[in-house]
Amino acid sequence: MLITLIRATIIYAITICSVRFMGKRQIGELQPSELVTTILISEIATIPIQDNSLPIINSVAVLLVIVSFEIISSVICMKSYKCRRVLDGNPVVIIRDGVIDQTQMKRLRITTDDLLCAMRQKDVFCIEDIAYAVFETNGKLSIMTQAEATPVTPADLQIKVKKRSFPITVVCDGCFCADGIKEAETSEKEIMKKIKNKKLMLESILLMTIDTAGEAQIIIKE
Q: Quick one: pLDDT at residue 208?
């Protein structure tokens, strides 16, 4: 039992490192080659856990080869448009000026229910409101609405608005976040000064952010 637990821990750590090394994507955003690689990694990683007689190095070697292939193919796709089209496919326009391209629907094997569901997830409920709808290579739908169906923006009304500030996490669960502090171009000393001005302790802070305008927001642990 102990040996199995140790082997599982080792394989888990190696698998996590392999997936992280491939890059950050959500499952719904994976390209076909990335999805296949992820499935293969999960299948291969379970083999030495199920059979203690098999050496871990065999699975580790296979995992490294698969991850290497994925990284190499990604680099090739970055440099070659043709390879990118072969491995990842092409985006497909499925709606033009409120008219569904039924030929493309059949080619992609997409039902009307699938299309309507993807539209609703984009907060669009009427096909007539769509100027263009494109099925991306990751299976998601991108929509450009008709001009008359697009919400009015301050730019349309020529209204000047205050520039938005991006909040950067500098303290999380009572600990400093080194990357956030560097991004915010501040220091632990300056952060502690802000905390003490609020008569708080570092350990009592659940989350502290500083936006690009220098304004701090603090959430206290309950």
A: 94
